[in-house]
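Students often ask why we bother encoding 3D structure as a string. The short answer is that it lets us treat folding as translation between two languages. Here is a chain of 591 residues written in the first language.
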Amino acid sequence: MSRRDLEFLLHEWLDVESLTKRPRFTEHSRETFAAALELAEQVATEHFAPHNRTADENEPRMVDGRVEMIPEVAAALRIFAGAGLMAGSFDEEHGGMQLPYTVGQAVLAWFQAANIGTSAYPFLTMANARLLIAHGSRQQVDTFVAPMVEGRWFGTMALSEPQAGSSLADITTRAVPQDDGSYRLTGNKMWISGGDHELTENIVHLVLAKVPGGPPGVKGISLFVVPKFLVADDGSLGERNDVVLAGLNHKMGYRGTTNTLLNFGEGVHTPGGRAGAVGYLVGEENRGLTYMFHMMNEARIGVGMGATALGYTGYLHALEYARTRAQGRPAAGKDPASPMVPIIEHPDVRRMLLAAKSYAEGGLALGLYCARLVDEEQTAGSDADRQRAHLLLDVLTPIAKAWPSQWGPVANDLAIQVHGGYGYTRDYPVEQFYRDNRLNPIHEGTQGIQSLDLLGRKVVMQGGAGLALLVETIAATTARAAGTEWAGFAADVDAAAARLVTVTATLWGTGDPELALANSHVYLEAAGHVVVAWLWLEQALATGGSTGSFYDGKRAAARYFWRWELPATGARFDLLESLDRTVLDVDPAVL
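And here it is in the second language, the structure alphabet:
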């Protein structure tokens, strides 16, 4: 990561220091934020990055029903937890430091860039703990949250099933109520990241299941805490729960993170002499998906940040290579006796680096802006400001997940291209960054699911209030650009935002939901580029009149996104506005 870019985004743009005036953050200052980032950089550099390639080449194995992995993963995570990094954004009552969420996300970005596989374990655990704090009982919070915040236990989310995939309405895992208030779960869960390992004393699974007699589809889904080991009243670990590792999925990337098939209620372990995994209902029956979205939305923004971090580190590796690799001569200087020049001197290499920079730094701005909205949602001084932040975050969440997940891998692809023939060898790490990042368009809801969420729900909810707020927020930025060198950029952003509104109305004006949603992926791409163009305008304005290579680089990337990327939205809007039926009408038999 770039420490200088993080400092610019946090302080010169998002002004996180102003948060210290709010009651929740009064114990903090710019100095404590800097200390947290410095600690993150140190731990990520010294303990996460060194085993990134080792974990990729030696992925976890299943041996006699247990997971074996390289020891460096556990060692790094012990240091991470011991340094208090797991606890950063949590309340003091839960053992946390009450850092702003914005700072916490910047801290985590260091680890995602250094080693996405190892960082996934605390990432999932923190989201699990926050869900329980928000929706769990006092007893559940007391029992499960503290050990996770301390890093002694890790957490997961168990949603998908082999036959259902992303279609959660079709899950079949059952949860049968017991006389003691617990439930017994039976079923299978697939693609569970961190689902089994020997890294911690216990694993806290959050499991979606259906209680017999409940409503059909997603309305009949409930949420349960299912620990790997049962927990006694005094917090000590008891017998093994009936949760069995059935297999590991072998992935093209993220290889350091176990990805599992889990069987619940297989009868291998029988707590209390009875088959079935013991689970504890979170909240009320049949409201499980509502609760799980608390973790899923956090995970979606986190996946977007991970995709950004991987794209960012790929860009930085390519930049360093381009500055040091000598090859060829300028187009105007073909004297073979003249010395070769670094490849960064070639315009096409600079084009690739500018593009990658615009995706990486644009994605980082998007993720941190959404994190800042979380802080506003939780700590703003008025109900109106908190509700505004909540609504804007709702609209931006599918974009914050999907845009970096699409363009982060493009930045990694460009990093490989800058390296030339060396790029796709294992002599350089950029090929691994690409493989790792290719998982992110699938993690936590595919690009298609995010596009349906954005166009099918978020921009039309509350009579279009979310989209109206987004456009109003963009307009406030473009108004500030009047009379500056960025006035032309602002005018183009305004035009694109207006087009987003009219195209949305055109799509839904058909009265045909299938036609409106048929090209939703194109809508997501266009909306994402409009949003990131707006955030590049924000960054350009934040540079003010500051001089130096860093600020010049920011302005160059902003200009690139304005000239090269924003115009691409026009073709996408044209396609959408034409109500094209190509993909809707194609006969599956001809494919």
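Translate back mentally: The chain is about 55% helix and 10% strand. Keep this in mind for the problem set.
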